[in-house]
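Recall the central idea of this unit: under ordinary conditions, the amino acid sequence of a chain determines the structure it adopts. In this exercise we apply that idea directly, starting from the sequence alone.
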Amino acid sequence: MKNLLFVIIALGIIINPDTSFAQEPLKLRPSPLELVTMMYEDTYVKITYCRPSKKGRDIFGGLEPYGKVWRTGANEATEITITGDIKIGNHELKAGTYSIFTIPEEKEWTIIINSDLGQWGAFTYNAEHDVLRFNVKTEKTDQVYEPFTIEFEQNGTQKTNLLMIWDRTRVTIPIEFL
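Accordingly, the structure predicted from this sequence is:
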């Protein structure tokens, strides 16, 4: 009886291979995962984020409305991991892993370091888990940045700038290694 059932199932798959047993092919994410790192002495900084593209859209004040909490990328919320204490935006931050959220405005952004990890977007963002909040000025760039970009820019011996750039908007967040 078991053999007959096996043959019937096997014949069904051969005759009609489009069954629930077939798997859908993997699809590439439209906003790819990116990782940027910086190291000074024993302190390592790693930022994991997804890079949405402009695709002809109005970004800040359009796709990403002013005054609303943004995941600072696409897909999962952006995360920062640091292995030693640092100063970020002139505020001390203990070693650990945190989510980074932002509130874009035309002339400045609010940078939010939050202890809630593993979030999809900012849908469940909770300000009660904020570790730090501070503001940075925006700058207009000469060129258009098609994908959202996070990068480090050296700024002295034990200092770096964390840059967030998309479309023609750039913010610079100073980091000092302690």
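Residues 4-11 have pLDDT under 50 and may be disordered.
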